[in-house]
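Q: I'm building a small set of examples for a reading group on sequence design. Run inverse folding on the following structure and report the sequence directly after it, with nothing in between.
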């Protein structure tokens, strides 16, 4: 998909000038440690940045290295993650870092092929690590960047993902992937907002009384008490699919369920 180079140059100059004066001060912004960048990306997915920052600091204070995460017990991981939602994401992150330890001697891969071989790492996370930690010229397409590209380059809202990736790569000058992506993200988050452009991310379903709400509630109780009574949880978080939710959580490895005592405990 061909784009007038003048449009690209104008967008680059406009956003970079704005960014130099208005960039957000985020704790991971100036880092190049791929582990710490990865932590920020996993935490930031579907979560407001204001909620992420204190959790990010607390996580790294307790688990400053990959080895610390690999060696941590499940209760520690879930306690530090509590409040961010999607608790199995934290455990999957630990699983991926275990592979980094076993296969790559504690070093996060610096190429897409190896990153995508890690469990639970998709194209977006792989590209984010490569761009922000290794300054590689790969497209990092979150909703903010997509909104900027579509708006400032006068693209159709129906532009295919593949075309957006090609356009994004064309917008990255050699050796400037990290700063350009940060600038694009901030411009989309603070200037070309969803309210201003009408380009929004997919709307999430109602949280309370949902399956996610039950999972969140039970996990919160487990983090607090380590062991809880199944029937008490059923009363506290009533849901017609309670047993199914319980089964999925045990399957995900969030805890051990003792059927004989009807108790749940963190594994």
């Amino acid at each position: 998909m061909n784009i007038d180079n003048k449009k690209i140059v104008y967008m680059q100059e406009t956003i970079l000038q704005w960014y130099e004066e208005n960039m957000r001060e985020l704790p991971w912004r100036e880092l190049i440690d791929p582990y710490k960048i990865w932590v920020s990306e996993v935490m930031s997915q579907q979560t407001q940045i204001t909620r992420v920052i204190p959790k990010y600091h607390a996580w790294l204070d307790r688990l400053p290295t990959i080895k610390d995460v690999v060696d941590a017990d499940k209760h520690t991981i879930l306690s530090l993650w509590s409040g961010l939602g999607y608790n199995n994401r934290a455990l999957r992150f630990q699983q991926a870092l275990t592979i980094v330890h076993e296969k790559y001697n504690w070093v996060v891969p610096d190429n897409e092929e190896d990153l995508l071989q890690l469990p639970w790492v998709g194209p977006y996370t792989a590209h984010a690590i490569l761009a922000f930690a290794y300054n590689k010229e790969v497209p990092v397409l979150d909703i903010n960047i997509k909104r900027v590209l579509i708006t400032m380059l006068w693209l159709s809202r129906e532009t295919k993902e593949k075309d957006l990736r090609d356009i994004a790569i064309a917008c990255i000058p050699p050796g400037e992937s990290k700063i350009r992506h940060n600038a694009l993200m901030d411009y989309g988050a603070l200037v070309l907002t969803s309210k201003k452009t009408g380009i929004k991310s997919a709307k999430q379903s109602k949280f309370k009384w949902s399956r996610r709400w039950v999972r969140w509630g039970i996990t919160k109780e487990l983090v607090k008490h380590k062991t809880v009574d199944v029937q008490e949880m059923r009363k506290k978080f009533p849901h017609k699919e309670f047993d199914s939710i319980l089964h999925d959580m045990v399957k995900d490895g969030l805890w051990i369920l003792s059927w004989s005592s009807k108790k749940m405990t963190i594994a």
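The radius of gyration is 21 Å.
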